[in-house]
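Quality-control log, excerpt.
Job 1 of 2 completed; input and output follow.
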Amino acid sequence: MALDDRIVITGIGLTAPNGNNLAEYRQNLLEGKSGVVDYETRYMPPVLAGVCNFDELRYQKRKEVRRGTRAGSVAVYCSHEAIADAGLDWESVDRSRVGVYLGITEHGNVETENEIYEISQFDYDTKVWSHHHNPRTVANNPAGEVTLSLGITGPHLTIGAACAAGNAGFIQAAQMLRLRECDIAVAGGISESIHTFGIFASFQSQGALATHEDPTKACRPFDVDRNGIVVAEGGGICTVERLQDAEARGAKIYGEIVGYAMNSDASDFVLPNSTRQAECIELALGRAGISADDIDIVSSHATATEQGDIEEATALRRAFEGTSAVINNTKSFIGHAMGAAGALELLGNLPAFDDGIAHATINLENQDSRCALPNLVANEPRNLGQVDYILNNSFGMLGINSVLVVKKYQG
């Protein structure tokens, strides 16, 4: 056991509402292209959503897609892409030494809603209820579907951490690699949220569901005209390894995970707590052995809800006031991908280690004065010249906070 092992990201697989691989996704972020569209869901007028259009059959047969879940399909697609991108000789990998750690906000809602709707068409005759329901709805399903697809016999966990889950997947991977519970981790976050009408109905009842005549302008973090969340699906999954193993096989290294933290607000079911968020940021910086002055890009969590944006802005001012760190937001392009949010937001920023550019926060036309922030990148990308550290915020309901710090690999 070597708890000081250096941990690196060596492969990336993703599907987002505006891209199905890192190059496409990054290009659309730099060009300001949104992936939010009009969307139909049960029992409600048309809503807005971030919808993914990846090829479900690239790595699964039709029978497997029908038997499994949307979250599982997202996870399988992204995991295969990450392993291929990592350049692993998969046939020679000891798959008992591979761990799968995927964050998710919720799971099972989609399948249960579908089954109840189906039996409602048959006078609620439970004989119609699918015998696949139980394996579809167990909490470990998405990670389990990955192990089935890839023949992985090591440990697998689906980590319920609300909208902090994407970071939580990477944190779990780093910890398990350092504990020598695995030699390769498949880690990140996924979301199938748009396929449950309940999430739209719940946000609507809270007055927190975004509307706009132009879907691409609906998600407006920090803007005074924001009116709520755009729900999105997606996935961001990486292969994560110990540095010495990655270097030994000559792997491409996207970045090194050097700091992380998770904590709890313990103050409200829904409302965030800026003090706890700032403490989480400070704890992650401390574990990375750096100060706020070292951070080049802060990827904000901001969901375009009034109180959420205000609280995070307060936390960011406390942590980064007086520094040169720039702040951006990815949800403005794709909506809130829930369990996948933190992962997709990190991955959208990782190419900055190579090109030195911070992508913008779009739809920021009239910044809320209560969300005044130092160095917020608004509407146009900013060339920083060099990027050495990225800090990624992800916060969720029930007051769960996660922060990840990634460093440029220097060789």
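Job 2 of 2 completed; input and output follow.
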Amino acid sequence: MLTKENIKELKAKGNDDIAFLIRENLKSNKYILNILENLGRLPNDFDGSWLPELLENKSQQVRYWVVKNLGKISSDQNLDTLINVLNCEEDTTVRREAVSSIGRMRNPKAQNILIQILNDKDPKVIIQAIRGLLIFKGNERIDNCLKELINHENEMIRTVIYKEYFANTKDKTNQQPHSKSYDFLKNVIVNGDVREILRSIPEESFHLTFTSPPYYNARDYSIYPSYQAYLDFLNEVFLEVFKKTKEGRFLIVNTSPIIIPRISRSHSSKRYPIPFDLHPYLVNMGWEFIDDIIWLKPEASVKNRNAGFLQHRKPIGYKPNAITEYLMVYRKQTDKLIDWNIKQYNWKTIKESKVEDGYETSNVWRIDPKFDKTHSAVFPVELCKRVVEYYSFKGDLVFDPFGGSGTLGRTAKSLNRYFFLTEIEKKYFEYMKSFLTKDTIFNELSSKFLTYPEFKKTIIT
């Protein structure tokens, strides 16, 4: 098998030897791929006339690499070959690479071809054509053709066009720098309606929100007149959270389907799929779905739903024990990539915030639940620790709109983040307040426990 250096030497001499070796080894796709994958940059005088011969090869990989190398040769003749590939090839990966190769040629003659490709049925092919045309951005005809795609049925195409032509740059003159947060929000717990509290603070205040909303009519503190009223309430809350979240930063919602018990044996219980019903609300308000993480609990820690089925074993009566909850991960929509968010921090902060070895590599987190005499639904510290470490930097402001027992606040501060919590229930507010004397983390960091009227007096914008 030829090495990369061997192929480089052959290429420097001209490509007669390469063409000869290819033709001598047509039955060995492994040999052919080794050459095609290692051709690298091709000189202007490179004769690639032998490449199209391989487009009849049955291997998709061989055809893909042929097309990729044809794109490195600026030849009008190759345009016709690539158009033929686009029209005749069945494999979508090879078709996309054909369009990419046409674009990489940066040949003005390819403009008409790329414009025609905008009508293709494959959205990924169209996106490759858009990439090729954006090289000529500023050309009135091309700009007009691309702008028309703002109404395309595919969401990825609309997103690309919006970013390139229609996104408005916000005036952030009076806003905090991305890595900073307002001092009056740091290490503060407010007793009041989260919706009112959020409406009173500046936009783009939080770096991360992690919360577990109250479950629909499952606790005394979470009674709503209807399931729709419950979803409408969460919609109000998370819309305000969206406004107060910094550009491109994260919201993580921990929830799970909930069962409302039947009122008698002649009626059925009702199971509400909260995470799935909440999801479209979040996406519609501007949160971009990123990941779903499964919180896996020991089976012994959950309510047994399997007892009846264990006795009768009759089909359609099966009810599994619910040992999972969802952590749904969302990012505030932005035209900027994650790298932009990271670059807003200095190197010292980035280095000190680096996640240590031993982090969870899968989306299944095996963590024991926490039980508390005062609060019936408490975050385990380990759950908070992972979320805070994986989705924020040291010095960031972490928010929980349903503060509960304050676990997120204590965990955030132990990891050198600031916290801001809201809690409408007076008894849980007082419960958190008790940590002023019992919890050294709260005590040393001078946490503030305020009513909403008291909090309003501290706001500085």
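Post-run check on job 2. The chain has a mean pLDDT of 88.
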